[in-house]
Amino acid sequence: MEPRSRSFYVLTAFFALFILFLYGPTLTIGILSFQGPGGGLTFPMRGVSLYWFYDLFEQQAVGDIWGSFRRSLLLGLMVMVTTIVVSVMGGLAFRKKFPGSTVLFYLIVTALVIPSILISLGVGLLFSQAGVNVHWSTSGYGAQLTWTLPFGLLIMFAVFNRFDKSYEEAARDLGASPWQTIRHVVLPIIAPSLIGVALFGFTLSYDEFARTLLTSGSKNTLPLEIYGMTTNVTSPVLYALGTLTTVFSLVIIGLFLAIAVWANRRRAAKGNDAGKGMV
Q1: What is the CA radius of gyration of the chain?
Q2: Neighbours of 178 (CB within 10 A)
């Protein structure tokens, strides 16, 4: 076995520092959330307990933690479903050139580079001028779609760019209608990618701050509520909330990954069964 070069150890150390930079703040908050009743917002820790997690479920003097969590969860699900549907429809539409397709593509991508706070301001003003109430379920929903849809569409563009059209041709030769071809052939094949789009849609919506800041109305989503609490909550209960929301995000990611693995295994098993049937 060849000895490791100096550059290997330098790059390994650099990567370790990069990982520490990424996850160090989250780990710090997680550690500080397990302090005792007399704990503060900084080190050193004063005891170890679950006190602040219990306190989090008590009636808080300020803020609406669980109401904002429910709003963020519902908004994330709304954005996720819309992102999946529109992304698939857009991916199917862009498989063929049509007048204005290039301009439309660049307009979609441009939404990713416009400052998020300007999007929030513009959407809020648009709804106000149109006489529609600025609310997290209307203007907030629309503002977040300007963030999630471009990602979903770019994923679908990549998926359909390498999609083998011979599967669709075979289905049509067997008498399948266009809808049956999409439902029984296209969607099962791209199912893992749809899970990726769903994950993007939900997670980007769940923790979005800037595009929701001026479009949520009088009811905060969870990121806005946490930001508001930083100005008037001076106990580790804020860290406990951050730890729970981080765990919730990781659970959601793990759930989507498990679904993706299950879908891949199910598709592989069906392929093997079909091959055995032909033999």
Answers
A1: 24
A2: 11
Q: What are phi and psi of 41, to 5 degrees?
A: -95, 0
Burial 56-73 (b: 16+ CB within 10 A, else e): beeeeeebebeebbebbb
Task: Show the domains of the chain with their CATH numbers.
Answer: 64-231 (1.10.3720.10)
User: In a 3-state reduction of DSSP, which class is residue 95?
Assistant: coil
What tens-digit pLDDT sequence spans the chain (279 residues)? 556 777 888 899 999 999 999 889 889 999 999 988 888 878 888 888 888 888 888 766 556 788 899 999 999 999 999 999 999 999 999 988 888 888 988 888 888 888 899 999 999 999 988 888 899 999 999 999 999 999 999 999 999 988 888 888 898 888 888 899 998 889 988 988 898 899 889 999 998 999 999 999 888 999 998 888 887 777 888 888 889 988 988 898 888 888 888 877 877 776 665 555 545
* Ordered DSSP codes for 170-218: HHHHTT--HHHHIIIIIHHHHHHHHHHHHHHHHHHHHT--HHHHTTSTT
Helix axes 222-229, 237-278, angle to 10 degrees: 160
From residue 228, give the alpha-carbon distance in Å to each of 145, 220, 240: 24, 9, 16
Q: How far apart are CA 148 and CA 80, in angstroms?
A: 8
Backbone angles phi, psi at 35, to 5 degrees: -80, 165
d(CA 175, CA 169): 10
Q: What is the dihedral of CA 231, 235, 239, 240, to 10 degrees?
A: -130
pTM attached to this predicted model: 0.84
| Site of tokens 């939900």 | 202
**Cα–Cα distance for residue pair 213/217, rounded to 1 Å:** 9
Residue 153 phi/psi, 5-degree rounding, is: -65, -40
Classified as helix, coil or strand, 48 is strand
